[in-house]
Structures are given as C-alpha cells and as structure tokens.
Design a protein that fits this description.
By secondary structure, this protein is mostly helical. The protein has four helices and no strands. Part of a complex composed of FtsB, FtsL and FtsQ.
Length: about 100
C-alpha cells in the first residue's frame, strides 16, 4: 500500500510539473494566446494598408488626376501657364532676431 501511495504522489508531482512548467504548460498557452492577438492586430493593419495601396494603384491606372496630383506634390511639377509660389514661414529663431 505504501508503494502505491508513493507511486501516485510521484505521478501527481510529474503531472503538476508538466501542467505548470513543462511543454504545453499553462504559461506557454497564455503566451501563445497573447501572440495570436498581436498577430491578428498586425494582420488587420496590413490588410488596411494593402487595401489603401490597391486603391491607389487602381486610381493611378485609370485616372490622370491622380498622376497629376502625384507629379505636383512629389516632383514639384507645374502646368504651362502656371506660376509656382513657395511660401517660407519664419522660424522662431528668425522672429526673435
């Protein structure tokens, strides 16, 4: 009887070790669930970015307005007959002098 109790206590100790510390433990499960949440949030962010990029590509393929807007903002291009004006605001150092 004493040997049976000893075997059962050792078995219980081993199972408790696996439950709290070993592979597939409660702590590892909690960590994996947190990583799943982070991955899902990253996936949502990347899907929104991909949708915006797909819309921009479609707009650039079909419309000249998007191409013109990009040329004006990124390349500083102007149409013939237009005058380019650049406004430079005073910084704090310039205002005090």
């Amino acid at each position: 009887m004493r040997q049976l109790v000893l075997v059962l206590v050792v078995l219980l100790g081993f199972l408790q070790f696996r439950l709290w510390i070993g592979d597939g433990s409660v702590a590892e499960l909690h960590d994996l669930r947190g990583r799943i949440v982070e991955t899902e949030q990253e996936l949502v962010r990347l899907q929104a970015r991909n949708s915006a990029l797909a819309a921009e590509v479609e707009d650039l393929k079909t419309g000249l307005d998007a191409i013109e807007e990009r040329a004006r903002s990124e390349l500083g291009m102007i149409q013939s007959g237009e005058v380019f004006l650049q406004v430079v605001e005073k910084t704090d150092e310039t205002k005090t002098q």
